[in-house]
Amino acid sequence: MWSYRKRLERDLDRWREAGWVTASGEAAIRADLETGVRAVGLAPSLAILGAVLMGFAVMSFVAANWQDMARAVRLALLFGLLWASYGLAGFLLARGLNAFAHASILLGTAIFGASIMLISQMYHVDGNPPDAVLVWGLGALLAGVLLKSNPALALAMVLVGIWGMWETGLREEVFWPFLLGWGAVSAAFYWRRWRPGLHLSGLALSGFLITLGYILHGGHGHVQVVAIGLAIVGLAMAGERVRPELTGLWPGTLGYGAVVAFAGLYALQFVESPEIDMLILLAVLTLALLIAAIFWGLKSGNRGALWLGYSGFSIEILGVYSKTIGTLLNTSLFFLIAGLIVCGLAALAYRLHSGRESREVKP
């Protein structure tokens, strides 16, 4: 929000000097911008953090005094705190204090999770431990949907991720049911039109896809990861043309697909330990992907793809240098070829850009 505001203020000054924006229009835009800034202020953020801390406080207090309480007192305390949190949320919503209401909802979901763990301990409920996390995540999802609470939905995605990782570690194989939980929470994010939540979904799915390379085919499934990442990139590029009205969906999808493909290529180079000739080939392909991401970011205004390309390019160069530092001749040859390719692409981009500008100014 801060970077957007800074860029908009700079653009407003330029538009005013060019006569594109009137003084009254500029004032209206700045007033609307200030309203948006106040809506995402410090107080709501601190309220969410306070709810998280209070949730841990409740869990710690109850756990510390658990043995000294009668069973009925334990249950009454847990359920009382749970419904008190949701009741407070309803009161705050009625007063128009939505941010604080969502913090109270988040506190209620935290107490719900603590109740699951402590009641299971009290009644000596045996079973699969990750199932408790799944139930907690479903409760957070239900609260987020019924009460239209984005923080509760974010907690649901975090819990679904923990559930998936825990099950994967116990089974030592791909845990495909994770995709069902991920899809349910992602659908709720899309229903709420909450962009940070969709980015959280992208991160969770990217992590799942990257781990496939370390599980499939005895831990050598990175080629499949690269293919999946490139397919996601292709889907995003096609989606921008077929459904351009979904402007908030495709840039992020392209970025996460590129991350997955880059992670797979990186593993093929520096985890699989290929021969030097294959390493150079994979490095050239990786650099081509990253340069394409930079080009696409510049062309479409996708800053995420742009910085992904810059960051990945640096990581790739450092990785190649570290891997081939013992064979300086091959290292220098690789950097020479890569440098020539990049310089050639720079010259081509300059000629294309100059030609387009000349056509635009031609009468």
Report on this model:
Helix 5 packs parallel to helix 7. The chain contains 14 helices and no strands. It has 363 residues and is mainly α. Helices cover 83% and strands 0% of the residues. It is flat and about 75 Å long. Among the domains are: 40 residues; 144 residues.
Topology:
Elements (H helix, E strand, L loop, with lengths): L1 H16 L5 H17 L2 H23 L6 H24 L3 H25 L6 H18 L3 H22 L6 H15 L2 H18 L9 H21 L7 H21 L5 H25 L2 H21 L4 H34 L2
Helix pairs in contact: 1-2, 3-5, 4-5, 5-6, 5-7, 6-7, 7-8, 7-9, 8-9, 9-11, 10-11, 11-12, 11-13, 12-13, 12-14
List keywords for this structure.
single chain, 363 residues, mainly alpha, 14 helices, disordered C terminus
Can you tell me the residue ranges where pLDDT is under 50 for at least 5 consecutive residues? 359-363
N- to C-terminal distance: 40 Å
User: Kindly state the mean pLDDT as a whole number?
Assistant: 79
Largest sheet: none
| Beta strand count | 0
Radius of gyration over C-alpha positions, nearest whole angstrom: 26 Å
The structural class is: mainly alpha
The H-and-E topology, N to C, reads as HHHHHHHHHHHHHH
Q: Which descriptor suits the 3D outline? A: flat
Query: What percent of residues adopt helix (DSSP H or I)?
Result: over 70%
Number of helices: 14
Strand content: under 5%
